[in-house]
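Table S2 (text version). Query chain:
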Amino acid sequence: MAYFKSDLDKNQTISGGLILVGFSYLGKLQILLFLVLLVIYVITLLGNLLVILLIKLNASLHTPMYFFLVNLSFLEIFFTSSVAPQLLVHLLVEEKTISTAGCAAQMYVNTIMGLTECCLLAAMAYDRYVAICHPLHYTTIMSSVACAQLAGASWFFGISVEVAQTTWIFSLPFCGSNRIHHFFCDIPPVLKMACTDTSKNEIMVLTVTVVFIMGPFVLIILSYVCIISSVLKVPSAEGRCKVFSTCSSHLMVVTLFYGLALITYLGVKSSSSPESDQMISLMNVIVSPMLNPIIYTLRNKEVKGALRKTVGNTLFPQNWRNQ
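Corresponding structure-token output:
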């Protein structure tokens, strides 16, 4: 339940919900931002759905790496959809309100998808490590059961940890202003509204960051140290390039995701402003999910081949059957 302080002794329930200040400072430029974000959101949905459909429709892509990619595309759709529709509406209206329940639901979905992605990227890094460092045992180690267990563990940690953390945050009493200086219900701005000691919550946020966000990042780094070590043992430069190209897309996605996440949550706060923080968050929540399917399609020969085959089968079925 959320509260605001009406006097020194009494807290009263907020009747009008919370206000996401967001990009109000942009004035009429919000309409331009709306158009840009609408295009990005549509591309994000279509791009990730296209990746999922391509992998489902092409047997050649039914491998561990693409199994994880389906999971990644699926959660990217929900990750950006937890924020984008609400943001698009708020860019067109004066009253940028959200109910406390709606705020909690938004935080649940956003944080679950974000944490699950961290774990899933680590699972994908492990897949690439096994493929490059232990190619003869790849099919045995990365069996369908093992892949399901890795993906299941990613979702389990994401859901259980963030449900516990978000539930705890929204069990706190909120008072003072009901204005959230952000465009969505993120953990730091919501915690600032609490009218009680939040030190334990902040410790939990730090613990989650270190264990479940930085932990997978360390595993990714270790995987790539082993991968690079193995690649350097390949005698020819062409061979090294070919081997490393199999994980270049994943490496780009990891760099983009963790780079923006680290700037957002561990950046230098003394030199940042609410406006710059919001723009960085916008890149992380809206722009990054759009780039991931583009990275995996434009830089991946197998996906591009599957796309050509699927389009060819759809438009010219007779020609492709005769090939």
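Notes on Table S2: The CA atoms of residues 143 and 149 lie 10 Å apart. DSSP finds 13 helices and five strands in the chain.
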